[in-house]
Amino acid sequence: MTQRELADPRTGDPGRSTTPQPPGPARPSRRRAGVGTRAPWWFLLPALALFTLVVVIPSWRGAFYSLTDWDGLSPRFDFVGLDNFFRVFRDSAAGASIMNTALYALGITVVQNFIGLLLALGVNSAIRSRNWLRVLFFAPAVVTPLVVANLWQYILAPQGALNIALRAIGLDFMAQDWLGNAQLALPAIISVVVWQFAGYSMVIFLAGLQSIPEDIYEAASLDGAGSFKTFWNITRPLLAPSMTINLMLSLIGGLKLFDQVLIMTQGGPGSATESLSTIAYKDAFQFQLFGYSTALTLVLTAFVAIASIIQFTLLRRGEDK
Fold first, then answer.
1. What angle is formed at CA 260 by the lines to CA 105 and CA 300, rounded to 5 degrees?
2. Rounded to a whole number, what is the largest CA-CA distance in the chain?
3. Concatenated DSSP letters for 231-291?
4. Which of 16, 145, 236, 306 is the most buried (most CB within 10 A)?
5. How many CB atoms are closer than 10 A to CB 104?
6. What span, in angstroms and rounded, lies between the C-alpha atoms of 173 and 165?
7. Could you list the pLDDT tens digit for every one of the 321 residues in the chain?
């Protein structure tokens, strides 16, 4: 067969087969591709609009009012610049609340995660009741903090259930006014928060523990590694992501603590349990110092952001090692 005969009768190109080829996939038009890429943004618009209305606009307005002496009611106010922020660091009550807020954050972060890790290690074992224990330990975390705070307020009252139980077993000397003692009230609030949310930390740690392959533990056992060495050299490094999440959540929760303090002690006795959130609430709604209160909340926001960034950076470096 000649080269001309082998040529494509439509083009005359030599060597091209005359066998018809199946059509290739159709290339999407520019119009269709554009619609596909724009569609997710249309779905996001309702959520973005709600977020802007509820969060962004009030935040910007609050930042503006922090530069004024607005009382929250009057339509008139004066621009005072940064005086409210300078006042925060001159105010002894605000300084005490900043210290208390730091103690809340530190105590809750350390104790809650320590107990949560112990609970996770316990319910991750082969005990028969592990599923029931998981539900029992996690149950307080699904109850609203207002209900938990009211419950523990009655338990810790001078004639509450805790003191009644102590007297019933002959420990009368341990009965205390737990929320009326300036030295015991703050640790009592921390204990209540830990009691409620230690199970939440447990669930996150438990998810991390169950993601660790059993082969690693078997290899460590064959090498003769003990329980502590196995935990320190295997479990602890592989739990680093779970640890990062738990520490971040508990730190932010401790810095923003409000419900438990307001319900259980209202910041008392005196100002022994006052936090930045509660003192900002009182300044705004009891003393009509709305501009100053907004400045306090912005200081709290700055503390939360700085502490979170520092902690996240350090924890991520620990994960990468």
1. 45
2. 115
3. IIIIIHHHTHHHHHHHHHHHHHHHHT--HHHHHHTTT-STTTT--HHHHHHHHHHTS--HH
4. 145
5. 25
6. 12
7. 554 444 454 444 444 445 555 555 555 555 554 555 666 788 888 899 999 999 899 889 889 999 999 888 888 888 998 999 999 888 888 989 999 999 999 999 999 999 999 999 999 988 888 899 999 999 999 999 999 999 999 999 999 999 999 999 999 889 999 999 999 999 999 999 999 999 999 999 999 999 988 888 888 888 888 888 888 888 888 999 999 999 999 999 999 999 999 999 999 898 899 999 999 999 999 888 999 999 999 999 898 899 889 888 888 876 666
Instruction: Find tokens 């935990």 and name the residue.
Output: 231
CA distance 144 to 162: 22
Cβ neighbors of 110 (< 8 A, separation 6 or more) are: none
Token pair in block for residue 159: 């004639």
Q: Tokens 């091209």 appear where?
A: 16
CA 253/CA 47 separation, integer angstroms: 25
